[in-house]
Amino acid sequence: MKTIAGFDRIGEENAFAVLARASALAAGGMDVINLGIGQPDFPTPPNIVEAAVKALRDGHHGYTDATGLPALREAVAADLDRRFGTEVRPDRVLVVPGGKVTMFAAILMFGEPGADILYPDPGFPIYRSMIDFTGARPIPVPIRESNGFAFSAEETLSLITPQTRLLILNSPANPCGGVTPRAEIERLVSGLEAHPDVAILSDEIYDQMLYDGEEHVSLLTFPQIRDRLILLNGWSKTYAMTGWRLGYAVWPDGLHDKARKLAVNAWSCVNTPSQYAALEALTGPQDAVATMVAEFDARRKLVVEGLNALPGVSCIVPKGAFYAFPNVTDTGWQAKPLASALLEQTGVATIGGPDFGTLGEGYIRLSYANSRENISRALERMDAFLQKA
């Protein structure tokens, strides 16, 4: 049966393949420590769960507006205004079933044969997968360890050509944990004024997961690019709600209605009780967020110290998200075979750096969204394996 060529170009997110293999090994009796999948190991806060239960009991079982509950869109706008001091119109907010949906919509809008789309490498693998699907040319923006895994404004701007339609940015970043500083973002925004036809997708899903006094600089705070900026954010990471499938985007005037029509055609609306849970997440107590980030900080220090003690491994300190991206070049292993061997032989699940882009070779990704006890056990197993290798 013949399908269009684009479907043969679709990639995937290998973290889910590793999760499936880790689950299979665990089902077979192996003691598996999963440092592969990128999701908080905390439960969703009880007040958020209760808001969804109440919505069900109150009879909120039907469709909502395709763009999301009005009260929820207003809460998103108010939250962004509170945190960044920038006005967002609720009618430019689109509530979607997960962060990937915004990537899909934005890349679909701008990607076609003959177009270039710039994306971070190493970066979230769905960027590249969706660019390939549209037939656009993927142009990697190097994310280098020597630059603290932040993007370089100068290097990014140098890659823009008349064919460039969309620039994808991510800070704090997956998989590297890098945070791009304000000065670099300001240089980028200034340079983008010479490229008024290039749209920007800013993936800020980890915006509240910062350490060591780092500041999150939202692209929303730059009025000179607001007319072409698409903001991606959501509830999955900040509120430990990965399985709820909730995200939101802020779209500029000229694109919002296109995104709304895509919503009508593709998913109608987001699960209604989940939207009430999301409303509670934004308007209710925020203590659980601070508690979770403080614990991630403690784990971050543990994992970085442990990784740097391993033979052949070095790891710079991540400034955001909940990932470490150690350099494993001196172990003598290539990244993906090492990640596979660690899982199969020691029961430690990690992700090989090349799953995040060609510049990921020589690195593996560890998620420290696991308990300190498990992280310590995983590091012991990795040490024993590398000592023998």
UniProtKB/TrEMBL annotation:
GO MF entries: L-aspartate:2-oxoglutarate aminotransferase activity; pyridoxal phosphate binding
Alphabetical keyword list: Aminotransferase, Pyridoxal phosphate, Transferase
Domain Aminotransferase class I/classII large: 31-381
InterPro entries referenced in this protein's UniProt entry, alphabetically: Aminotransferase_I/II_large, AspAT/PAT-like, PyrdxlP-dep_Trfase, PyrdxlP-dep_Trfase_major, PyrdxlP-dep_Trfase_small
Signal peptide: none
Cofactor: pyridoxal 5'-phosphate
UniProt EC number: 2.6.1.1
Reaction(s) the record says it catalyses: L-aspartate + 2-oxoglutarate = oxaloacetate + L-glutamate
A GO biological process held by the record: amino acid metabolic process
UniProt entry tagged with the keyword Glycoprotein: no
Keyword field contains Nucleotide-binding: no
Protein family membership: Belongs to the class-I pyridoxal-phosphate-dependent aminotransferase family.
Protein name: aspartate transaminase
Species assigned in the record: Tropicimonas isoalkanivorans
